[in-house]
Amino acid sequence: MPSELRSSGLALIQTGQALARFGCSIAFGAAWTAWGDRWAVGAATVLLAVCATAAFALRPAVQAPAPSPATVSEETPA
How far is CA 46 from the centre of its chain? Predict the structure, then answer.
């Protein structure tokens, strides 16, 4: 990303995060009002566990690090 656009990109990401947090707070408040405190907190706990499990399952695979130039032998063509 060009350096002159980095601050705009970060501002866009932060705006998206703030809107997502606002939407989640509205949804949690609506659940609290409709279902009561125990069910709302229970549902939020279950959703958090599901999201954490999905994030763990969908994480990228760890790749072996590339060899550094110091570990490449002199006989190996570059």
Answer: 18
What three-state secondary structure class fits 70? Answer: coil
Residues 6+ positions from 40 with CB-CB distance below 8 Å: 28, 31, 32
Alpha helices in the chain (DSSP H): 6-35, 37-57
Give the whole-angstrom CA distance, residue 18 versus residue 6: 18
Residue whose pair of structure tokens reads 């570059």 in the numeric block = 78
Q: What are phi and psi of 24, to 5 degrees?
A: -65, -40
Q: What is the pLDDT of residues 35-75, one digit of tens each?
A: 999 999 999 999 999 999 999 999 988 887 777 666 555 55
How many Cβ atoms are within 10 Å of 31's Cβ, its own excluded? 18
pTM over cut 0.70: no
- Eight-class DSSP state of 18: H
What the block records as the tokens of 10 is 């970060």
